[in-house]
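Notes to self after the Tuesday call (sharing in case useful).
The group wants a holo model before anyone commits to mutagenesis around the pocket. I volunteered. Ligand is pyridoxal-5'-phosphate. Logging inputs and output together so the record is complete.
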Amino acid sequence: MAATTPLYDTYLRAPLRFERGEGVWLIAEDGTRYLDFAAGVAVNSLGHAHPHLIEALKAQAEKLWHVSNLYEVPGQESLARRLTAVTFADRVFFTNSGAEALECAIKTARRYHFAKGHPERFHIITFEGAFHGRTIATIAAGGQQKYIEGFGPKAPGFYQVPFGDIAAVKNAINDETAAILIEPIQGEGGIRLASKEFLQELRGLCDEYGLLLILDEVQCGVGRTGKLFAHEWSGIKPDIMAVAKGIGGGFPLGACLATEAAAAGMVAGTHGSTYGGNPLAMAVGNAVLDVVLAEGFLQNVRDVALVFRQGLASLKDRFPDVIEEIRGDGLMLGIKAKAASADVLKAIRAEKLLAVPAGENVLRLLPPLITTAAEAREGLARLERAAETIRANSGTAAA
Ligand SMILES: *Cc1c(COP(=O)(O)O)cnc(C)c1O
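Result:
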């Protein structure tokens, strides 16, 4: 451990320093090449140093960086027009991060009821295992004690029920309920999928009780599941959706999308952000959409996802002593190991493969959406070697 650092100790960092990236590869200062299936926690959707993103950012950097929201920002309008054209949404508010997108979503839902003369309806039902960010409101929404503790009173108005338990949701609804907030796939929680039926039932309850359905697609959105947004698989439409991570491809960018009706309370002066929708971010966001919305891109994500699914299933069959369960959808995958996930992460890293820890002892694989079938197979081969190491180590331990 380093003796001193002026940085906060908030992160448990791996002792790795990267100098540059190329597609799915990260190159460390000592020249070692890592296959990056962490992708900056699902942020580097187009891998590293994607030529189209570099071009967009450079071109904008030479023209204009920032003007603030005192003025019209054409990039915001074009990106919002494109996002609303391909989603349920009519309105967009741009942010710099996922937590800010969630803050906007929460405020939008509360203002909706306030504007209809029901300020008492500000309570939001959320789910156990959720993660919505690290602001004072979003830690309350996420409900995880380890993130809430020591930061003063928990922000009021968030009620948690078990993930997937429709009876518990119904029970929690009362005259003060404003909305239901859910990740279609819990990321930090351990790659836990909400079933199609569950999402459909939540939509039904929202319609029945006049609630807004808020989806947190910060991690599972923007092509990660092989559709532009994960909820499309269930056929439902939310009223409000938070997006970030993959939409910026590595540039800090988030967005809160809403229907015309849901956004009705967000009139002039109710919300703002100095940097939100800054021209640099808009240039990159538009460039990410150029690629993700191009003919065949999402089909390729689905094809490569199939290579992973089959490869991981085979790995589980051959290493039942190491792997307990394979989870996930598309390129949002989880390996629930029998060994502690910290040890698994170490074994994987020894094979120069990067992954992300998550709840329930699950290791996340979040490969860039540009990963090819050959790169997927390379990753699977590295996972297999890591599984062999873990098996050998546990064999020694048992003997
Ligand atoms: C990462 C994440 C957030 C928070 O995003 P930040 O950019 O870190 O604020 C919120 N929700 C989900 C589902 C996430 O994965």
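Two things stood out.
Residues 97-99, 102, 131-133, 183, 187-188, 216, 218-219, 244-245 surround pyridoxal-5'-phosphate (CB under 6 Å).
Residues 51-292 form a domain with the Aspartate Aminotransferase; domain 2 fold (CATH 3.40.640.10).
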